[in-house]
Design brief:
CATH topology: YaeB-like fold
Strand content: 25-35%
Shape: globular
Strand order of the largest sheet: 1-5-4-3-2
Number of domains: 1
Radius of gyration: 13 Å
Order of helices and strands: EHHEEEE
CATH class: Alpha Beta
Helix content: 25-40%
Structural class: alpha+beta
Number of strands: 5
CATH superfamily: RelE-like
Length: 95
């Protein structure tokens, strides 16, 4: 399957990486690589994420080794669309 990031999700990843890079550029690089690896894993196993109970069609995974959640949908075309990337401690209302 193909994986794509929404503009919002891409902006969130960029903001996370930029924030961490201010203090630790190497850690920021590791975060970027882990986000990319998690997204790539969804190409092979798109249904591996948990279903969000409040939003039909929405799934989420914990990005391995990071305190971040990756929210996504599986489109009828077979594309995995990543719609949000949020810190696990953050209150979630709407993806």
């Amino acid at each position: 399957m193909r994986v794509e990031f929404s503009r919002r999700a891409a902006d969130q990843v960029a903001a996370i990486v930029a924030h961490v890079a201010d203090n630790d550029p190497a850690a920021a690089d590791r975060i970027a690589r882990r986000v990319e690896a998690a997204a790539a894993g969804l190409a092979d196993f798109p249904e591996s994420g948990k279903r969000a109970t409040t939003f039909p069609g929405l799934r989420w995974i914990v990005i391995p080794g990071l305190p971040y959640l990756l929210f996504y949908t599986i489109r009828p075309s077979g594309t995995v669309r990543i719609v949000r990337v949020l810190h696990a401690a953050r209150q979630r209302r709407r993806p």
